[in-house]
Amino acid sequence: MALAKHKKASLWGAFFVVCSLLGCGPAQGEDPVALPATCSMPAQAQPVRSRSVTDGDTLRLSDGRRLRLIGINTSEIGRDGAPSEPYAQAARRALQTLVEHQPLQLALGEDGRDHYGRTLGYLFDEQGRSIEALLLSEGLGYAVVIPPNDLLAECHQAAEQLARGARRGLWQNPPVLSLDELDSGGFHLLQGRVAAVTSSRHALWIDLDGPLTLRLERRDLDYFDHAPDASLVGQQLEVRGWVVDRQGREGMRDGFRRYMISLRHPAQWRMVTTP
User: Fold this and answer.
1) Which of 93, 159, 196, 262 minimizes the number of CB atoms within 10 Å of its CB?
2) How many Å apart are CA 254 and CA 248, to the nearest integer?
3) Across residues 83-101, what is the average pLDDT?
4) Confidence check: pLDDT of 27 > 60
């Protein structure tokens, strides 16, 4: 029953984003989405066309390149009989509507390719609107920043905040897990209290009061206003990123936390005020 409920929500989400973004008019009681001013299209953008859409953040261009959109991570579509995560199909259908048979503009990231060989870029529609921001503003994905590709970080964060504030899409039921609920790898939005901040030769380590540690490499410290230190201990954090399950790994010592997130950019975390 729960899966059917999620599927119904995803179908409605796809309908809503298509209408609100492409001219059907806002739903009753909803204001039209206005993208942040920080979402301007870079001058170096080049015309492209879409051939097919894989999921909510990946598509195949007409020239054969696989494009992974920068700044957004959408829910996973189920494979091999597994169910899709909530809003995964809605994000895919919304992206299809936004890009298929439409003239598009692509601006490559500073780092233009990922370890899967996919092109990394920012995509814009005929009106110069950010495709990633359109999806984020409807709650169909999470804003993510992976340096050095942070050109539109403010745009993507602001677009997500529009959805979060209006409780659109996946933010209808905020998907924030406590550390007690963390039991697998993959992308997660988590909340926990800082237990310790330590350092090693190449990284700073922020241990939370559960099975999670955050690893901040020294090479990424320039993105932060100041290096995390012991003043963080006791603070409640909301953190997002791809969780690595380190259990059973060679060199994993007793007492180390099982799960780890690589902290690359300050957009991955925020302080949470508790009552």
Assistant:
1) 196
2) 11
3) 95
4) no
